Amino acid sequence: MAVAQAPGPVMPRHGGHWNVDGKPLVSQGPRGNIVINPDDARGLELQHASPACCGATPDGGMNQLCTCGTLVATLCSDCCLPYELHLSADHVRAVRP
């Protein structure tokens, strides 16, 4: 985890994450990634996941497969980690319906 430049903690399932100086921590990841709640994503399939007791860990890299067959995101959903989905800025873009 890295110290946030902007205020606001990660969204963990159990408690908050703060450094020794009391600054909030946010999850590390490649610059430019979009971090969302996994429940807000639709149509992604878990391709592979590093072993965890009750969810996916980001240790193995991108693990969410788009319907087009491309790995596009990394799910972090284990009980002891932040609950979040990192969309790869290199693989995902916003479109208007």
Please give a handful of descriptors for the protein shown:
mainly beta, two-stranded antiparallel ribbon
Task: Give structural notes.
By secondary structure, the chain is mainly beta. It has no helices and 7 strands. The strands form 2 sheets. Strands 3-7-6-5-4 form a 5-stranded antiparallel sheet, with no helix packed on it. Strands 1-2 form a two-stranded antiparallel ribbon. A hairpin with a 7-residue loop joins β6 and β7. The radius of gyration is 14 Å and the shape is globular.
The assigned structural class equals mainly beta
Strand order of the largest sheet: 3-7-6-5-4
- Rg result: 14 Å
- Tell me the strand percentage band: 15-25%
Tell me the overall shape.
globular
Integer average pLDDT: 76
Task: Compose a concise summary of this entry.
The protein is mainly β and 97 residues long.
Per-chain topology:
Blueprint: E1 2-3, E2 25-26, E3 34-36, E4 45-46, E5 64-65, E6 71-76, E7 84-87
Antiparallel strand pairs: 1-2, 3-7, 4-5, 5-6, 6-7
